[in-house]
Q: What sequence folds into this?
């Protein structure tokens, strides 16, 4: 019998911690190169096949490009931010150069997918220029799928009105069930869009003891206590159940999990299949975007 994780093909490793310190529960800082190598070797042996990175993740792309251990993985990356409401020809050149620099840092001729990291770059004036640029990369064989990384349902709805997205990265967790409850996961899948879910642990906040939540999340302390209690009732760790909650959604193709330590990837890849957990955790969905959207958290 294989020892591989039953959902290894749906797990992608996030790399932001490999390029910079990241996450409200991160106590160890940026992952060391030796730790990254150990993570890559173990994940590959268990059947994980995708790494998610970005030009804005500090040194992450360069770290990956320097390691032969990353060769067995496909990669998704993201565009740099244009920081403008009007995407000009000059912005197009800037994004074009940054993408080619990403490929150079990764030491790859192509990647599986490219997400627009900041949807406003597509939704503002001149967004068609950015989209056409990405289609150009696809025509050159430098990327297989193009799309966007989004924070909320309204961004997806507005993007789909203008662009035939091929791949989307979106938040999904026990706390953030918006895309499922609004039917957008099903709609995206029906349109042939490849769906990558991130923030399964809400940057680690979901796993914290209720009394150690950061100040901006203290209002969910009682909810957090109930979630932890519900997990204990069913005999598996909250990490296991929170990850399985995402992995077992039929419309999600990949779940991006960030691991800054080898022990964390071991724990992630030991999570058993559990059957549907949607009913178990349905009541814990939170609509307040100031809670479930880390982009709105205090910096």
A:
């Amino acid at each position: 019998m294989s020892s591989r994780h039953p959902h290894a093909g749906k797990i992608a490793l996030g790399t932001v911690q490999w390029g910079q310190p990241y996450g409200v529960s991160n106590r160890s800082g940026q992952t060391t190169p030796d730790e990254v190598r150990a993570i890559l070797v173990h994940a590959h042996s268990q059947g994980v096949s995708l790494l998610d990175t970005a030009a804005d993740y500090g040194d992450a792309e360069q770290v990956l490009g320097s390691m032969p251990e990353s060769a067995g993985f496909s990669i998704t990356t993201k565009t740099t931010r244009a920081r403008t409401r009007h995407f000009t020809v000059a912005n197009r050149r800037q994004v074009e150069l940054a993408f080619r620099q990403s490929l150079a840092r990764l030491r790859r001729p192509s990647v599986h997918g490219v997400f627009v990291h900041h949807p406003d770059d597509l939704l503002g004036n001149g967004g068609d220029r950015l989209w056409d640029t990405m289609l150009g990369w696809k025509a050159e064989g430098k990327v297989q799928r193009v799309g966007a990384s989004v924070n909320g349902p309204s961004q997806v709805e507005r993007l789909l009105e203008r662009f035939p997205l091929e791949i989307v990265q979106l938040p999904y967790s026990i706390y953030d069930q918006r895309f499922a409850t609004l039917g957008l996961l099903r709609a995206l899948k029906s349109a042939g869009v490849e769906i990558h879910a991130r923030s399964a642990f809400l940057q680690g906040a979901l796993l914290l003891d209720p009394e150690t939540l950061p100040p901006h999340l203290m209002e969910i302390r009682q909810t957090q206590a109930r979630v932890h209690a519900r997990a204990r009732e069913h005999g598996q760790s909250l990490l296991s159940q929170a990850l399985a909650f995402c992995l077992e959604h039929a419309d999600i193709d990949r779940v991006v999990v960030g691991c800054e330590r080898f022990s964390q990837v071991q724990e992630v890849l030991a999570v058993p299949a559990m059957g549907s957990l949607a009913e178990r955790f349905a009541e814990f969905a939170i609509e307040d975007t100031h809670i479930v959207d880390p982009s709105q958290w205090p910096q």
Observations:
- Residues 22-26 have pLDDT under 50 and may be disordered.
